[in-house]
Write a structure and sequence with these properties.
236 residues; seven-stranded antiparallel β-sheet; 13 strands; globular
């Protein structure tokens, strides 16, 4: 089993030319880990999936309430290991041992949205809103998309999170997958196997089903039952 290709620090994963605080790590999960994780995603009970007009998704450990509150519960073990320990093991810089979740309220992600996109599906440009601390870590599985290859980790924080919209075009074929102006901004950071495949296809890629796992720290967390004011007479 191949070891993940982790940088010495997040500073080494900075995407130059992108808005500040955008980081890309190819090979964050090795092929065996990707396969195991996809198997877990696809083996959850069907009611776990929520079907939207352009994709379907899962929310773990649960969806947020209408007031953006997360009910206190742990993420499933298969969404914790090895992802979260690996995430927080990468320091911001080699001289600074803080990681991307050091300054978040719970010091680790406590929520994961799993989105499945089939060819032709996408999501309109949007922002994630105020429910989360402004750090998001997205893992891609199954197939590539512009900026991301399978097993990669894309991190957005700071200005990239708060000042810019993000989305996925509803296409069946991606084009201009090449180096240079008008191409892929993180081309130099892609794994060599994907560069070769894109070059072989003439800078085009017919989309396949892709699954994204988006990890965040929800700001408001409450325990179920607190403040409900149950009354017991003590009788049985």
């Amino acid at each position: 089993m191949a070891d993940p290709r982790l940088p010495a620090s997040l500073a080494d994963a900075l995407v130059h030319g992108a808005p500040p605080s955008t980081y890309y790590i190819p090979g964050f999960l090795n092929p065996a880990e990707q396969s195991q994780l996809l198997q877990k995603v696809n083996s959850v009970p069907l009611p776990t999936w929520r079907h939207l007009s352009h994709r379907r998704l899962q929310a773990h450990p649960s969806p947020l309430t209408p007031s953006n509150i997360l009910l206190a519960a742990a993420l499933p073990p298969w969404l914790q290991e090895p992802i979260i320990p690996r995430l927080i093991s990468i320091p911001m810089t080699e001289d600074d041992r803080e990681n991307i979740f050091t300054k978040t309220p719970h010091h680790a992600p406590n929520h994961c949205l799993i989105n499945e996109y089939t060819p032709g599906q996408g999501i309109h440009p949007h922002e994630d809103g105020a429910a989360y601390h402004p750090v998001v870590a997205t893992i891609s599985l199954g197939a590539p998309i512009v900026l991301e290859e399978p097993g990669s980790l894309l991190i957005s924080m700071g200005e990239m999170y708060t000042e810019h919209l993000h989305g996925i075009a509803e296409l069946e074929v991606d084009e201009n997958l090449h180096e240079g102006k008008g191409g892929v901004i993180n081309w130099d950071m892609l794994g060599p196997e994907w560069k070769e495949r894109f070059d072989k296809e003439g800078g085009k890629w017919k989309r396949e089903t892709r699954v994204s796992l988006t990890f965040r720290d929800v700001l408001k967390v409450k325990n179920l039952g607190k403040g409900l004011g149950f009354l017991s007479t003590g009788r049985k």
